[in-house]
């Protein structure tokens, strides 16, 4: 499956590098999970359809998804279907890449999200 | 002093050995020696003086000649000059209450043309007086005395001063000159000084002065004094140093006090400027750090939490959909499985059924199966795993747990952040470091200054102590030196006392000398006047006689009190005046010296001669040697004098051999030596 390895785009990588500093979260995968969740939570379709994953940051799906890999995969498939796409491997992988890029953008854009309290607060105080 | 015997050997005109016994008896003081002019009467007088005084003798025959020439010429012309001449004089003197018998032998001879040797040998018998009591004649036991022989000149001066001797041995030819006021003055002066003991007083004064001058501090004492001075100097130095050090210490102390006060002021200022708060800053900062650490801890917990399933919480609705979908998919799967089984079972049932019922039942069963098939078919199939539903349930559980935890942590984080803000505000209230820094630095400097001053003060106190010890040591040493000095001082005081009292004694002696002089002079005046009046034919001519105490000049006064010029007196009268001067002197001196009177009556008339013979010669002294010509003491006068005469001699001159020999007796009683 093409989800074996996940590679980030350079702008995403730069943003994540800053977020690593500001939030204190040291792992790329944790931040990426939050970014994916944020983007998937937004029902609108991402405007960017193509992302060039050209940075040197790369991780396996297992590393990315952690213990809840099945659920993330299910959610991605569900998104594909919701967007009117066949939940093929290719589509799932594409969706992941696009949403990851958008989510990272969201993380950096929200001032609150740049601190750990804000990040957690976004889910905990709901 | 009494002359005992004179022996002449080859002296002058005396050829060979000539001897005269000059011993007198009680009430017979006169030894009468007759001789014509040129027989050697004066030579005899010279011999006595020469024997006693040697070179100092005032011999009539010497004139201006040197002593050696005189001695050479005094050797008898017919004698052998290399054997020489000799005079032996024996006499007794009372020394310290005892009569001593002396024999002095003066001899001389020539050896060669120019050299002349003179010898003086003195013999003495110091015990003579004790053996010769009650006037009996005792042979003296004479012993040669080397000391006396060598120092005869000094010794004779103490027995019979030359000045005195010249008064008691006088030449009648020259006596007249004594009447001259100038000459008389010097005679009186010397006589009073030497004969009457005034010179002794003066000598005493001089001796005292010498004693005084001898009293000086010894070198050791001087050294001690120097030492004391040095130590006094040192003590002064130490004293000054101590004072200086104490002053310094006091100054340091006051400086220290000032510095401490300044420190207090600075500390007060420091407090006022928020110094204490500043000190609290550290604490606040510590607390701040603590709270920051806690916050960081909370954050790290949050970060850990963030790594969990929390992001999935964002997708609540999607998860719900997923759950429904999963439910649907399960149902579809179940229906799919049941459908095949049911078809088999339906077939099996249909087979068992009768045919009539078969169709009806078959229809009913097909409807049921179609219904079931409908539920098994899904519009969307995500191909979810059959575990999805339990996974979702587990996720729900985990999410609710993590959410609660997140809320808790966020609460804590907020509190910590609040507290931190509080602390940060407090820190802002703490004065700016730079503002306090200056005063703090000043305070620290002041603290150091105080410490420095304290050290200096300490060292000053130490040096004061040390100096005190040193001073004590020096003082003790000085004390010892002083004690030693006191012992010396006692001696010094003794010296001072000696000086003081000798000064006093000298003054007293001076006064005593003056008083003695006056007394002697007044006594001399009386004695002289009495003598003069006794001897003078004209009783009323001179009624008063004065001797000036300063100049010793003689003044005569007549009945009216007017002074008489001695020049107005006749030659005979002047001779009498001179005789009475000598007599008066002898009387005042106590008649203890022999009087040798040479040619006593030269210019006198018969009345005066009688007066002298009757009133003077027997009383002139205890021993009177009368050297006379046959014209002076003639047969008539001899008769008047006889009862006082102890011995008579006649000097006989042989005109052919030019030698004189001594014969006992006088012209009119030759051979009768002891006229009773």
Automatic annotation (TrEMBL), chain A:
Top-level division of the source organism's lineage: Bacteria
**Upper taxonomic lineage:** Bacteria, Bacillati, Actinomycetota, Actinomycetes, Kitasatosporales
Q: Which organism is it from?
A: Actinacidiphila reveromycinica
This one is known as Putative DNA sulfur modification protein DndE
TrEMBL record, chain B:
One GO biological-process annotation of the entry reads: double-strand break repair
Q: Does the keyword Transmembrane apply?
A: no
The record's keywords, sorted A to Z, are: Coiled coil
Q: Which domain of life is it from?
A: Bacteria
Please list the residue ranges annotated as the Rad50/SbcC-type AAA domain: 5-256
List the GO molecular function terms: ATP hydrolysis activity
Coiled coil as a keyword of this entry, yes or no, is: yes
Q: Which residues form a coiled coil?
A: 214-262, 399-484
Quaternary structure (record) = Heterodimer of SbcC and SbcD.
NCBIfam families the record matches = DNA_S_dndD
Q: Which family does it belong to?
A: Belongs to the SMC family. SbcC subfamily.
Full protein name: Nuclease SbcCD subunit C
- The scientific name of the source species is Actinacidiphila reveromycinica
């Amino acid at each position: 499956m093409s989800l074996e390895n996940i590679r980030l785009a350079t702008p995403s990588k730069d943003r994540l590098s800053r977020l690593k500093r500001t939030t204190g979260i040291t792992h790329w995968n944790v931040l990426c999970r939050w970014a994916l969740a944020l983007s998937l939570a937004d029902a609108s379709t991402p405007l960017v359809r193509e992302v060039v994953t050209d940075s040197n940051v790369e991780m396996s799906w297992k590393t990315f998804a952690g213990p809840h890999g099945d659920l993330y995969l299910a959610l991605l498939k569900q998104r594909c279907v919701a967007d009117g796409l066949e939940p093929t491997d290719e589509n799932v992988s594409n969706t992941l890449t696009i949403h990851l890029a958008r989510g990272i953008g969201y993380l950096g854009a929200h001032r609150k999200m740049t601190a750990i309290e804000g990040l957690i607060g976004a889910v905990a105080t709901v | 002093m009494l002359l005992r015997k004179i022996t002449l050997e080859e002296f002058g005109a005396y050829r060979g050995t000539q001897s005269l016994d000059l011993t007198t008896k009680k009430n017979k003081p006169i030894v009468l020696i007759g001789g014509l002019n040129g027989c050697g009467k004066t030579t005899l007088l010279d011999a006595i003086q020469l024997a006693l005084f040697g070179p100092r003798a005032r011999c009539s025959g010497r004139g201006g000649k040197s002593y050696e020439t005189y001695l050479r010429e005094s050797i008898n012309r017919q004698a052998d000059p290399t054997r020489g001449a000799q005079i032996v004089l024996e006499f007794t003197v009372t020394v310290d209450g005892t009569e001593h018998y002396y024999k002095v032998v003066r001899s001389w001879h020539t050896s060669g043309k120019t050299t002349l040797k003179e010898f003086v040998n003195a013999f003495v018998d110091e015990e003579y007086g004790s053996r010769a009591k009650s006037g009996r004649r005792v042979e003296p036991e004479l012993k040669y005395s080397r000391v006396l022989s060598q120092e005869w000149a000094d010794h004779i001066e103490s027995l019979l001063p030359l000045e005195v001797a010249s008064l008691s041995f006088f030449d009648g030819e020259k006596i007249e000159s004594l009447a001259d006021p100038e000459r008389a003055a010097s005679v009186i002066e010397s006589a009073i000084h030497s004969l009457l003991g005034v010179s002794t007083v003066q000598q005493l004064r001089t001796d005292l002065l010498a004693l005084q001058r001898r009293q000086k501090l010894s070198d050791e004492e001087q050294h001690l004094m120097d030492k004391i001075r040095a130590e006094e100097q040192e003590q002064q130095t130490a004293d000054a140093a101590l004072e200086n050090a104490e002053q310094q210490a006091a100054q340091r102390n006051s400086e220290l006090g000032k510095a401490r006060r300044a420190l207090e002021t600075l500390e007060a200022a420091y407090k006022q400027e928020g110094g204490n708060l500043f000190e609290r800053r550290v604490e606040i900062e510590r607390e701040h750090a603590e709270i920051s650490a806690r916050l960081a801890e909370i954050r790290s917990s949050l970060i850990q939490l963030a790594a969990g399933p929390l992001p999935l919480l964002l997708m609540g609705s999607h998860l719900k959909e997923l759950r429904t979908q999963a439910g649907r998919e399960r149902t579809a799967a179940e229906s799919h499985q049941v459908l095949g089984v049911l078809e088999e079972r339906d077939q099996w049932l249909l087979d068992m059924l009768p045919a009539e019922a078969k169709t009806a039942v078959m229809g009913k069963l097909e409807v049921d199966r179609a219904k079931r098939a409908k539920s098994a078919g899904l519009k969307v199939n995500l191909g979810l795993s059959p575990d999805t539903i339990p996974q979702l349930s587990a996720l729900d559980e985990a999410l609710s747990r993590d959410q609660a935890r997140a809320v808790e942590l966020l609460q804590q984080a907020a509190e910590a952040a609040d507290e931190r803000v509080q602390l940060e505000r407090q820190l802002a209230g703490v004065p700016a470091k730079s503002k306090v820094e200056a005063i703090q630095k000043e305070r620290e400097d002041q603290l150091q200054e105080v410490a420095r001053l304290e050290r200096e003060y300490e060292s000053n106190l130490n040096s004061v102590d040390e100096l005190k010890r040193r001073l004590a040591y020096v003082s003790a040493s000085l004390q010892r030196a002083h004690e030693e000095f006191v012992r010396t001082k006692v001696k010094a005081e003794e010296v001072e006392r000696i000086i003081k009292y000798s000064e006093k004694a000298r003054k007293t002696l001076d006064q005593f000398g003056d008083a003695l002089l006056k007394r002697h002079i007044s006594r001399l005046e009386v004695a002289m006047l009495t003598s003069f009046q006794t001897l003078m034919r004209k009783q009323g001519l001179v009624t008063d006689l004065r001797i000036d105490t300063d100049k010793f000049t003689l003044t005569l006064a007549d009945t009216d009190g007017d002074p008489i010029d001695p020049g107005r007196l006749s030659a005979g009268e002047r001779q009498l005046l001179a005789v009475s001067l000598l007599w008066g002197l002898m009387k005042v001196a106590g008649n203890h010296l022999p009087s040798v009177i040479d040619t006593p009556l030269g210019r006198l008339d018969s009345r005066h001669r009688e007066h002298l013979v009757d009133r003077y010669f027997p009383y002139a002294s205890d021993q009177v040697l009368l050297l006379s010509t046959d014209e002076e003491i003639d047969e008539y006068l001899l008769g008047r004098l006889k009862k006082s005469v102890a011995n008579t001699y006649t000097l006989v001159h042989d005109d052919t051999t030019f030698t004189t020999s001594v014969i006992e007796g006088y012209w009119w009683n030759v051979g009768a030596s002891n006229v009773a």
